[in-house]
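Handoff note, outgoing to incoming analyst
You'll be picking up this chain. Sequence as last confirmed:
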Amino acid sequence: MNPPPNLRVLIADDHAVVRRGLRAAIAEDAHLTVVADGADGAAALRALQELGPGVAVLDYGMPQLNALEVVAKAHELGVECAFILLTMHKEEALFNEVVSLGVLGYVLKENAVEELVAGIHQVAAGRHFFSPEISDFMVQRHQRAVRLNAAKPELQWLTPAERQILRLIAQSRTSREIARQLDISSRTVDNHRAHMAAKLSLVGVHSLVKFALDHRHSL
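Most recent structure output, in case you need it:
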């Protein structure tokens, strides 16, 4: 499948030299257009709202708002965008937080020039893209999911739509935010939540949220 024409990209990194290098790498692909670059998380969030890029490449350690805070606030605001985290950190805990927040790409800065263009196309198509050095973290995440499914076999009774909503609940999304993202009503989301709680034998107003948050790195 051919890549989409004129895919709009946002870059945010507090180092001007890094931003220039990323711009140069992206400029080599005629299907990509950098619509803005920013030096901090607040600027990145404004650009996300005002320009509506298809992909945002965010440095993790930006001032004002770090990358994960930008992503979380973008979700709250209903901004539709595929995200790539750019970082020097090869830590499983950070990787799990990134994936659990719905970020599709995790690219190490040392590989950014070589990997970023391919990563942008992958996440724009709704697929994950990880630097090879941290790909084992995804394997370990899958193994945790297998163990959770064995310990809680009722999870197999959830429909694909319910599993998707459960993952969004694990990202601390409200019913209104989930409804906006999935283009369904809040009432439909609440019905799904009630059905999931019943299928998983979870009792109590907040039991489903607690279950989702406790297992957010395994769903």
